[in-house]
């Protein structure tokens, strides 16, 4: 993978990353950018990478700050029968209907909770 300033990236451990330049002074790590200090937090720290997104060019080993292309959030939905609030949620609405009660649809983006809505009322 060659870093493209027009694409979105995350670090290998999931932190947001922003690329500012591909022309840094360090010839081994010319990609200049920043990553979030804490996932979801407000602080940023500047970083440098090789042209293929490696944070540590010396070892050649994978590092948590290595860049990986990010194609947008992965949206997942889970279904939770109200009678089962302290039990399991389900991948499909059909599986959750077994409980014949109100069902809540839980939406997540990249494993972060985003919303809840009632999708079915039991008979």
Describe this structure in words.
By secondary structure, the chain is mainly beta. It folds into two domains: 61 residues; 46 residues, no CATH class. It is 3% helix and 38% strand. It is built from one helix and eight strands. The strands form two sheets. A five-stranded antiparallel beta sheet has the order 4-3-2-1-5, with no helix packed on it. A hairpin with a 4-residue loop joins strand 1 and strand 2. The longest helix is centred in the C-terminal third of the chain and has 4 residues. The model has no long low-confidence stretch (mean pLDDT 88).
Task: Provide a brief overview of the structure.
By secondary structure, the chain is mainly beta. It contains one helix and eight strands.
Task: Spell out the blueprint of helices and strands.
Layout: E1 9-11, E2 16-21, E3 31-36, E4 44-49, E5 67-69, E6 75-81, H1 93-96, E7 103-109, E8 112-120
Antiparallel strand pairs: 1-2, 1-5, 2-3, 3-4, 6-7, 7-8
Characteristics:
1 helix, 5-stranded antiparallel sheet, 2 domains, single chain, 123 residues
């Amino acid at each position: 993978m060659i870093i493209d300033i027009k694409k979105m990236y995350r670090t290998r451990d999931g932190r947001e990353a922003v690329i500012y330049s591909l022309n840094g002074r360090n010839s081994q790590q010319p990609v200049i950018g920043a990553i979030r200090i804490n996932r979801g937090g407000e602080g940023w720290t500047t970083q440098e990478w090789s042209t293929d997104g490696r944070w540590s060019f010396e070892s050649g080993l994978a590092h948590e700050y290595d860049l990986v292309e990010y194609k947008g959030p992965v949206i997942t939905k889970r279904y939770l029968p109200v009678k089962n609030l302290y039990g399991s949620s389900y991948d499909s609405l059909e599986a959750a209907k077994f409980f014949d009660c109100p069902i809540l649809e839980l939406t997540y983006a990249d494993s972060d909770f985003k919303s809840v809505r009632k999708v079915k009322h039991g008979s």
